[in-house]
Structures are given as structure tokens and as C-alpha cells.
Design brief:
Blueprint lengths: L2 H5 L4 H21 L4 H14 L1 H4 L7 H22 L3 H6 L1 H26 L3 H11 L4 H13 L8 H29 L5 H25 L13 H28 L5 H16 L3 H26 L8 H25 L7 H10 L5 H6 L2 H9 L4 H36 L6 H9 L9 H12 L1
Helix pairs in contact: 2-3, 2-14, 3-14, 5-10, 5-12, 5-13, 5-14, 5-18, 7-8, 7-10, 7-15, 8-10, 8-19, 9-10, 9-19, 10-11, 10-13, 11-13, 12-13, 12-21, 15-16, 15-19, 16-19, 18-19
Length: about 450
């Protein structure tokens, strides 16, 4: 087909544009109502693929195109995660961050694996794949609510809750994605020889770490550091070049290693590379800002919309629904217990510890990014394994159900529990007066702050 036909109603390009537009509008509408916008974007995608009179005017993108777009969105998530990881935060919050990163994640992954094996019939490696998909939380929901609570005078920003939650949530996503990729690699190697099954998983992990380290350190010297004191525009051009190179190599690593059937190595390499790049870049704030804009205005709507379009309500039977509901509820219970144990030895009050448990409920981004990863990869490679295809469909279905349940539930629980569990140390009027008293010399625009910081650091 010609480009013109693809861009007309019923064409793939028109459908992608319509999906992006409707997801963006629906996100803005739900955000104005205090509901996570991710939920609206997901429902738009589900509606476009399941409502008959809408399906007539929209075309489903080929699986290869849809898979490539979701992989690029995953790469953006990995780059943002790696560039935002500050290892100093672990030292600041100590053992609590490490416990909050690993204990709830591994506990929920284990619970999901056990229940999915005995209730749904998945194999153990597939059960752990499901567990790590749903174990990740979403900082994009938690952070705005915490900031809003602080503006209303609650004791959030100026104690350790904010640092603890934000630091742990960033690491939590990385651990969940890495765990999923490891078990996915092990699952795909089960059709090979026993020796290959034993060594492929560790080999992919090692390859991802080594490749990420090599390329990450390479960006300490490429492009060559600026020797003189540059202007703001020079620094911006320099960081644009660095960001473009980092992005292109990230895409090359994920797609290239996936082509050679090392699908677990690419995402790990991107995470490791981004962490190393952060340590050697003076313009990490600017790079993060650009990626945040790309994510908010393009990648996020497309990702959630395409994941929604993968759902076929006609093939989801009541049997999988009630089993998935049991697994989700039991998983949340054990996760909350693990979160409470993780912060048990901190200086937080009992009510603040309960608030941390509530804050660890929202889920959306990682589930959307890798929920369909197994199914699309298996389909794209032409792997004729009915059990693996069934497992991919189950993982995608439960991942979407987790988003539909946990994103609005967690958001509402955080908002309604905050007045009960948190101490209000200042009135809203005093917060407004403090904000208005901010010196004019202090930059309030994030991009302006980024450029000024770049010049100072150069």
C-alpha cells in the first residue's frame, strides 16, 4: 500500500495517530478528575480493538510494527530509569532502600509464581516471568501525589518518606525488568540441550552487564569532553549529541541482541549503560528532561494504547478472570506484608509505615512495557510452543488486569489515607506564602534550571 492509503481512515498510520491523539486527550481528562491517566490510555486501546463500529475505521498495526514501537518505549523507560538512579540514595536511606527494593519484589514474584503454577498451569519459569512483570510499581503515579501532599502541608518531603519511596521505586523497576528478562531467557532455552539451558541464562546476564559497562564507559570519552568553558548553547548541543548517540546505541543493543536470540541481554545492557553514563555526564539533568518529554507526549500514550489494543475481550473467559483476581489479591497482601517488614526498623512512625505500604500499590508502566513482551517475541520468532504462547497470553491478560485494578486503587488509597496516616505540619496558606517568597533569582523553570546547571558544572 502507498503512504497515502496508510494515512487515510482505516490505514495503519491514521490508526496510530488517532490512538496517540485519543490517549493524550483521555489522559488529560482523567488527570483533571484525579484519576491516573494511564488507565484512560489503556481503555482507549481496548475500546479501539473491541468496539465494532470503531474497529471499522481503524487498522491494527502489524505485529512487527507494534512490537518495535513497544520495544522503543521500553528502551526509553530503561534509559530514564538508569539515568535517574542515584547510588548515593542507598547510602542516605541505608538498609531500608535495599529491603524495600528486593523484599517486596521477590516476595510478590514468588507468590505469583506459586499460584500461577497451581491455579493456571504455567511452568515455573513462566510463573516467575509473570511474577516479575506484575511486581514493579509506578513512580509516575506516586511522585505527583507526594508532591501534591507536600503542597498541602503534609510531612512528606522534609522527612525520609519521599527519599525512601522515590529511590526505592526507581530501583524496583530495574530489578523487576531484569528478573523478567532472566527467566524469559531461561524459558526460551528450554528447547535446547541441557548444557545450553544451564549456561544461557547466566551468559545473557553477563553479556548484558559487560556490553553495558563497555559502552557506558565509552561515553565518558565520546564525544570528546569540552576543554574550554562553553556557553549554554554549546553545552546543549554537546548533550544533544551525547543523548542521540546513547539512544541509537540503546536501540541497536536491544534489537541487535534480540535478533541473535539474546533477548535478555539488551535491556540489561541499556540499564547498565545508562547508570555509567549518568556517572560521567555533566548534563544528565538535560538528558533526563528530554527523555521525560518524549515519554510523556509520545511514548507513554502509544505504549498504553498499543497494549490495550492487544487485549481481546472475547477470548478472556470467566475462568481466567476469577483465578487472576485471586492471584492479584493474594499477591497484594503478601507484598504489603513484605513492605511493612522492609521499613519495620526505620525511624518512621507506625502510621507512616502503613502509608509506605499503601504507596507501594500503584502499578502500570512496567506492566505495559513488558506485559506483552513474551507473547510478541514468541510470535515474531515463529516459535510453535502452545504452552509458551498460552503463557504469553496469560501474562498479558493479568498484566492489564493489574493495571486496571492497582493504578486507580493505589492512587485513591494514597490520597484518602494521607490525611489519616500523615502529619500535617503546615497549613496550605503557609505553603503558598513560602512559594511566593521564593527569590526571583532562583530559576523556577525546569529547563532553565537545567541549562544554568550545565553552565555552572562546565
Amino acid at each position: 500500500p502507498t503512504t497515502g492509503s496508510l494515512a487515510l481512515p482505516g490505514g495503519v498510520l491514521f490508526s496510530l495517530f488517532l490512538l496517540l491523539l485519543l490517549c493524550t486527550l483521555c489522559r488529560l481528562l482523567l488527570k483533571s478528575l484525579g484519576i491516573p491517566g494511564m488507565l484512560g490510555m489503556l481503555l482507549v486501546g481496548i475500546g479501539m480493538s473491541n468496539i465494532p463500529w470503531i474497529k471499522e475505521y481503524t487498522a491494527v498495526a502489524p505485529s512487527s510494527v507494534s512490537s518495535d514501537i513497544k520495544n522503543v518505549c521500553l528502551i526509553i523507560i530503561l534509559m530514564r530509569g538508569g539515568l535517574s538512579l542515584e547510588l548515593a540514595d542507598i547510602k542516605k536511606c541505608g538498609r531500608a532502600v535495599l529491603l524495600l527494593v528486593f523484599l517486596p519484589c521477590f516476595t510478590e514474584a514468588l507468590v505469583y509464581a506459586i499460584l500461577s503454577v497451581f491455579l493456571i498451569g504455567l511452568r515455573w519459569t513462566e510463573g516467575f516471568m509473570l511474577g516479575f512483570v506484575v511486581s514493579a510499581i509506578t513512580p509516575a503515579i506516586i511522585l505527583p501525589i507526594l508532591l501534591k501532599l507536600s503542597r498541602h502541608g503534609y510531612h512528606v518531603i522534609d522527612n525520609s518518606i519521599f527519599t525512601l519511596l522515590i529511590s526505592a521505586s526507581s530501583f524496583d523497576d530495574v530489578v523487576s525488568i531484569s528478573g523478567f528478562m532472566v527467566f524469559f531467557s531461561i524459558t526460551l532455552s528450554q528447547d535446547h540441550s541441557v548444557i545450553w539451558q544451564i549456561f544461557k541464562g547466566p551468559l545473557e546476564i553477563l553479556m548484558g552487564i559487560v556490553i553495558g559497562l563497555v559502552i557506558g564507559f565509552m561515553f565518558w570519552i565520546v564525544p570528546p569532553p569540552i576543554k574550554f568553558r562553553p556557553s549554554g548553547s554549546t553545552v546543549m548541543a554537546y548533550e544533544n549529541t551525547r543523548l542521540a548517540l546513547v539512544t541509537m546505541l540503546s536501540i541497536s543493543m536491544v534489537f541487535g541482541l534480540n535478533h541473535f536470540e539474546f533477548s535478555g541481554s539488551g535491556p540489561l545492557a541499556v540499564i547498565v549503560m545508562a547508570i555509567i553514563v549518568r556517572r560521567g555526564s555533566m548534563g544528565v539533568l538535560y538528558m533526563t528532561y528530554v527523555l521525560d518529554m518524549v515519554w510523556e507526549y509520545a511514548a507513554e500514550p502509544l505504549l498504553f494504547g498499543l497494549v490495550g489494543r492487544d487485549i481481546r475481550l472475547s477470548v478472556i473467559g470467566p475462568d481466567i478472570l476469577w483465578k487472576a483476581s485471586i492471584i492479584i489479591v493474594v499477591g497484594l497482601i503478601f507484598r504489603s506484608l513484605a513492605v511493612f517488614i522492609s521499613v519495620m526498623w526505620t525511624k518512621l512512625t507506625f502510621k507512616e509505615k502503613i502509608f509506605v505500604c499503601v504507596s507501594w500499590i500503584p502499578k502500570a508502566t512496567v506492566q505495559a512495557a513488558i506485559g506483552s513482551y513474551a507473547l510478541t517475541t514468541v510470535t515474531r520468532r515463529g516459535i510453535d510452543d502452545p504452552k509458551l504462547i498460552y503463557a504469553g497470553e496469560v501474562i498479558l491478560t493479568i498484566a492489564v488486569l493489574v493495571i486496571l485494578v492497582c493504578a486507580p486503587l493505589g492512587s485513591l488509597l494514597i490520597k484518602f489515607s494521607a490525611p489519616i496516616l500523615l502529619e500535617k505540619v503546615r497549613s496550605e496558606m503557609s505553603v503558598i506564602l513560602d512559594a511566593n517568597a521564593t527569590p526571583k533569582s532562583q530559576p523556577t523553570n525546569r529547563l532553565a534550571f537545567t541549562f544554568e546547571t550545565l553552565e555552572e558544572n562546565s
